[in-house]
């Protein structure tokens, strides 16, 4: 359960006085919260959260839901203060592991430096802001799960019969699209100058020429920049035709060229968003309806049955986490001082 934040533009209220006009930035307090120390939630902070939700849903938030958003912010303050009071911490190892899991879910095929750029450009946070947010969320999760441990101990896995029933009701949803496995010589060009890109293309042309008299794996070892694949013959693994994440990284033209190739065919130089590729297709599979015991993807250890079980387990954990959070906040409210200024929820 991971979360992200964006800081958006703050609202400015212009007041006009009888006799002359002037502009003044107003940031009214919409709530005061105190569990261990006084904190305020301002109208600007509430507006930022509402704008974030609206940007994610692409829909305006009805005015009636502003109080709900305010309650969420009040709850977060209570959890943060309670966790600090009870001395909950997140170690550097825990934080790094959490960030690594987040990176694996969001952008597993990029370097750490590229991931930092994604955080800044797509999430809208500096790296320090991102790690601070991740640390805070990790502490919140640890606190909630410790204080409501019994809730999570009571979660039960679905039975075999329930798993089979879910599969049979959704069998046509369990499919593999067209899949290709390939080897590659990869020469990186991202962030290179025009002169450096010309040199990179010259290297790719030399590699292509050597393939006329050399084994593909030998050319890979000599020329490829991809340390993940060069020592295993350039094997890039399986790519699915509908993998939107990889297509966004590499580009549509790369995907179109890749899936147009035949087994054992060797390409010319193919340009992607990140570099130059010479590809040898080693395997190609047409779309397939998956059975209950089939792997979810060629070479994967997880079967359809296990994927269903993991999905149901995650759903049950999310429902349990939400109940634990709601109940814990209600308990903390009994010991807290909370004042809401309803008049400032209308704008």
Write the layout of secondary structure elements.
Blueprint: E1 16-17, E2 20-21, E3 29-34, E4 38-42, H1 43-57, H2 66-85, H3 92-106, H4 112-123, H5 127-147, H6 149-153, H7 160-169, E5 175-176, E6 179-188, H8 194-210, H9 216-223, E7 235-240, H10 244-250, H11 252-259, E8 266-271, E9 275-285, E10 288-289, H12 304-334, E11 337-340
Antiparallel strand pairs: 1-2, 3-4, 3-11, 5-10, 6-7, 6-9, 8-9
Helix pairs in contact: 2-5, 2-12, 3-5, 7-12, 8-9
Write a structural description.
It is a single chain. Helix content is 49%, strand content 16%. It is of the alpha+beta class. It has a domain at 175-289: Chitinase A, domain 3 (Roll). The strands form 4 sheets. A 4-stranded antiparallel beta sheet has the order 7-6-9-8, with helices on both faces. Helix 7 (160-169) crosses helix 12 (304-334).
Q: Globular, elongated, flat, extended or rod-shaped: what is the shape?
A: globular
Q: CATH topology of the domain at 175-289, what is it called?
A: Chitinase A, domain 3
The arrangement of helices and strands along the chain is EEEEHHHHHHHEEHHEHHEEEHE
Query: Could you name the CATH class of the domain at 175-289?
Result: Alpha Beta
CATH architectural label of the domain at 175-289: Roll
Alpha carbon gap, first and last residue: 33 Å
List the defining traits of the structure above.
single chain, 347 residues, alpha+beta, Chitinase A, domain 3, 4-stranded antiparallel sheet, 3-stranded antiparallel sheet, 49% helix
């Amino acid at each position: 359960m991971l979360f992200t934040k964006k800081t958006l533009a703050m609202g400015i209220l212009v007041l006009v006085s009888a006799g002359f006009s002037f502009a003044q930035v107003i940031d009214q307090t919409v709530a005061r919260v105190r569990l261990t120390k006084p904190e305020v939630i301002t109208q600007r902070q509430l507006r930022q959260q509402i704008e974030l939700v609206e940007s994610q849903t692409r829909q305006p938030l009805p005015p009636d839901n502003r109080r709900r958003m305010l309650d969420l912010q009040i709850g977060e303050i209570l959890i943060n203060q309670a966790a600090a009071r009870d001395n909950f911490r997140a170690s550097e190892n825990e934080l790094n592991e959490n960030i690594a899991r987040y990176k694996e879910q969001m952008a597993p095929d990029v370097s750490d430096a590229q991931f930092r750029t994604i955080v800044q450009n797509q999430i809208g946070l500096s790296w320090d802001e991102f790690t601070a947010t991740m640390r805070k969320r990790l502490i919140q999760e640890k606190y909630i799960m410790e204080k409501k441990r019994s809730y999570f101990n009571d979660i039960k896995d679905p039975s075999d019969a329930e798993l089979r029933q879910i599969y049979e009701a959704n069998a046509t949803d369990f499919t593999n699209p067209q899949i290709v496995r390939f080897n590659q010589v990869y020469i990186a060009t991202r962030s290179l100058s025009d002169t450096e890109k010309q040199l990179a293309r010259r290297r790719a042309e030399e590699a292509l020429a050597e393939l006329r008299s050399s084994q593909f794996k030998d050319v890979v070892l000599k020329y490829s920049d991809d340390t993940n694949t060069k020592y295993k013959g350039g094997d890039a693994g399986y790519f699915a035709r509908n993998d939107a994440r990889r297509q966004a990284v590499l580009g549509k033209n790369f995907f179109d060229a890749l899936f147009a190739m035949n087994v054992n065919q060797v390409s010319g130089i193919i340009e992607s968003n990140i570099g130059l590729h010479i590809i040898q297709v080693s395997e190609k599979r047409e779309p397939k309806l998956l059975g209950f015991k089939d792997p979810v993807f060629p070479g994967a250890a997880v079967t359809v049955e296990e994927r269903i079980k993991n999905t149901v387990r995650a759903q049950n954990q999310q429902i349990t986490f939400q109940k634990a959070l709601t109940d814990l906040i209600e308990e903390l409210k009994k010991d807290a001082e909370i004042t809401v200024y309803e008049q400032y929820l209308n704008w």
